[in-house]
Amino acid sequence: MKKSSVLSWLIILLAISYFIIPLLSTFEFSLRMLRGQYSFEAYRVVFAQAEFQHAFIRSILLALATIVLSIVLVVPAAYLVRLRLPSWRSPVEFVTLLPLVIPAIIIVFGYIRMFNSSSWLPLTDSEWTTDLLLTFGYVVLALPYMYRSVDAGLRAIDVKTLTEAAQSLGASSFTILWQVILPNIRSGVLSGSFIAFAIVIGEFTFASLLNRPVFGTYLQLIGANRAYEPSALAIVAFIITWACMGLLQLVGRSRGARAAR
Amino acid sequence: MLGMAPFVLFALLFLVVPTALLLVGAFFDREGHFTFGNITELFTNPAIVSSFWLSIKISFASALGGAFIGFFVAYAVILGGLPEWMRGAVMTFSGVASNFAGVPLAFAFLATLGRVGLVTVLLRDWLGFNLYSTGFNILSFTGLTLVYLYFQIPLMVLVIAPALDGLKREWREANAVLGGSNFHYWRHIALPILLPSILGATLLLFANAFGAVATAYALTGSSLPIIPIQLFAQIRGDVLSNPNLGYAIAFGMVVITSISSGAYIWLRSYSERWVR
Amino acid sequence: MSFLEITGLQKSFGANQVVKRFDLSVQKGEFITLLGPSGCGKTTVLRMVAGFETPSAGSIRMDGKEISGLAPNQRNVGMVFQAYALFPNMTVAENIGFGLKIAKKPQPEIDARVKQMLEMIKLPQIADRYPFQLSGGQQQRVALARAIAVRPKILLLDEPLSALDAKIRVSLRDEIRVLQQELGITTLFVTHDQEEALSMSDRIVVMSAGQMEQVGTPFEIYNFPKTRFVSSFVGTLNFLTGAVVDAAAGRFSVDGQEVITSRGLQGASNGETRTLALRPEAVVLGSGGEGRNSLTGRIELVSFLGSIVRIRVRFNENVVSLDTFNNPGAPPPQMGEDVTVSFGRGDLQLLEEAEKVAA
């Protein structure tokens, strides 16, 4: 198969060009703010904006809230399905796959219809309840990834025996989950969290239609009005996404090393 | 069983019921009477029909392109004789890039192939080639498809990698001892075995592109009226003056993405049956 | 002129010499087994004959022609893999006929040959099934039929039975041997299972760490092992470690008791600590008679294996294992009993090295 190496190299080099060039272009563009010289002026300007700081911090807080809520919802559910309710497995997995099938715009459309001012649970009425709704929406978007990661982590440990051992020592269900199960599926939870973080940081559709300022909507707004700052922010977004995925790989690899012991 | 309550309640309240309500709303009119009128209007309203059609075309084009190129990239790093470390690097990058959609991606391509983008400028300055005089425009069908490939290709790489891993070395060797050449191997064995996976992955890519809105919104705005953009405008401001029509559009979208995703899942389990 | 002539074969992967030296002449129709533990190079030798590995040195001649430069699809060898390797997208009939289809044989000829092969492996009814619908044993028989359908000059089998259940393994290996003899096809068989090797082969090549330890018929290999590796790998052995009393007379002391070997203790000096090998089937309960060795010890373990009763007897440091047949009329002896065992003077063999062989 050595002879196809040449062809393979060609394919990879072409692919690398296609994927790297836009990043380089964006970076180069972001440095052009000051006429005639390369500088980080665009970055300085954009970071100094109060609006940016507000949107960015909000995104981070939303991401953290999403992660916490996801863990609280998914870990007990995945645990119970694996331990005591195997017949629930298929329907639960089906539900966790729905966010991948139903486009985000449709989910948020459903939210607006169901939770608008004239409904039984008017979550869109105030800002903080809309933020709550936004978080719920993000949890839904992250659900497939979080569930799959946590489930994989549970599969790797003997859930049944650990639970029985803990019970025989007098632990309550909450204690078991918090002190026995969760620490042992740490890498699965982390994996899901990193993906959730990346999803929330970059998200646009939900926030835009629910009219809440986040990093994604700020990015779009600034792109409509400014020239160089959007590129700087795009680079920032890319670095954050890359960092999340990089950490994901790191966590995944250390999990493999632990399992090998 | 009570422990499942939070999860079940959440899933119902914030996933299943809102979506179901929306889809059901497609079958009612403003006054609350049951009707198929909205659904039929999907097929009769020229603006909506052309939007659906446009979405189908872009999704199809980016799915085919992504599947074709992605297959070769995956093949190159898995079976193509490249160094081992390249596979890990490509997989990691694919994980990142498949998530790098939306607004930042649109900006990145504007900075590359926009009117004053780096590549456009370099082509003009270095090669004397004026890209935009050929009629090319990043803010177009071709442009959007090109941008979509940025997350479609990595998605294909991620999805098809397990199938390529499943090609046992012994099949290639058995083919050789029975007198077959490389061509025979691909024609009679490898491609037939891979076909369900490739087909399924293409359908997944199709569904993926069909529902995407952020990238298009940031890049082409309302100038390229793909159906998610139409829906976006409708949600924002009821431009159709008929909220139930909006629900019908959502319904149509869900039908299309469901069929596509469903076919992907079915094809995946079909191909897994062979490779035990 | 032998059918397959392998001379001076060597293979290195980088600095790792996997096959140090391999020479073999195979007659037409012979069934040769390459036997050895994992990593001994036996599979690499087979793959070099098939053409999947290029030898670092040496030549392979088949039917007078040098083939080591040929691609695998030009050698006309048949190969059966450990993991069956049936093409999952084709039916059984299509799998078996694949080689003939590549050779562009006319379809009626292919159909006839496929039918013949299915009858040969006694599975005529599965022609239209897919591999995932078959059991492991069925898949392996189909793989065999596929390899033979193209009338290869030589048949190569790479641990074909290792992935199967024990019962199927035994029945299938008999079938393979019968088939091979009927067809008269020269065969190279690779395995780590010495029972397979002994029961199927015309000759066995025992290999270890890339080198040939011994070549011979099963009878020769089992009864007259030339190296300590062969004697410990093929069959089970008892080891008696003790001191040489009188090398010329063949007298040897084991845990304070004396035995005599008629095979001699060449090369050993009096007083030296050496190890003798003793096959379990040579040992019987009872004090024996004139001209036989006898040892007294205590029964350490009795294992009832059904038709066989395996008894382990301990003399101070040494332990001897022996098998007796189950006798419904006489229950086996008890653990802890004192017992005398005997064996012939010709049953002891001096091992080449001074240390006892690792168990």
Question: Can you tell me about this structure?
Answer:
Chain A: It is a multi-pass membrane protein. Chain A: It comes from Labrys neptuniae. Chain A: This is ABC transporter permease. The complex is a heterotrimer of chains A (261), B (276) and C (359). Chain A is mainly α and 261 residues long. Chain A has two domains: 1-30; 41-260, MetI-like (MetI-like fold, Orthogonal Bundle), CATH 1.10.3720.10. Chain A is 80% helix and 0% strand. The longest helix of chain A is centred in the first third of the chain and has 34 residues, at 50-83. The two termini of chain B are 34 Å apart. Chain C contains eight helices and 20 strands. Chain C has helices spanning 42-50, 92-102, 107-120, 136-149, 166-183, 194-200, 218-223, 228-233, and strands spanning 4-13, 16-26, 31-35, 57-62, 65-66, 77-80, 154-158, 186-191, 203-208, 211-216, 238-246, 251-254, 257-260, 273-278, 284-285, 292-304, 308-314, 319-325, 338-344, 348-350. In chain C, a hairpin with a 4-residue loop joins strand 17 and strand 18. Chain C is elongated. The two termini of chain C are 41 Å apart. Classes of the chains: A mainly alpha (261), B mainly alpha (276), C alpha+beta (359). Chains in contact: A-B, B-C. At the B-C interface, helix 8 and helix 9 of B face strand 6 and helix 2 of C.
Could you list some keywords that capture this structure?
heterotrimer; A: mainly alpha; MetI-like fold; 80% helix; 0% strand; B: 276 residues; mainly alpha; 12 helices; globular; cell membrane (chain C); translocase (chain C); nucleotide-binding (chain C)
